[in-house]
Amino acid sequence: MRSRIGTFWYSLLLTLLLLLPMMGAVLFFANQRQNQNRVRQVAAGQGGITVEQGAQTTHRLLLVVQQERPGFVLLRMDGPAQQVTFCSLPGDLLVNAPVGTTTLAECAAAAGPGRCVQLLSATLATGETALSPLHYLAATPDCWAVSFGRTAGVRLVLDGQLTELTAAGTADFLAARQDGDTLRACLWEGFARQNPEALQAMPDALRQNSARTLTDLTAQDYTALEESLQYLCAQSALTMDWITPDTAPAPGGVQLTDTGTETLRRLLQ
Question: How many CA atoms lie within 13 A of 185 on its CB side?
Answer without folding.
Answer: 21
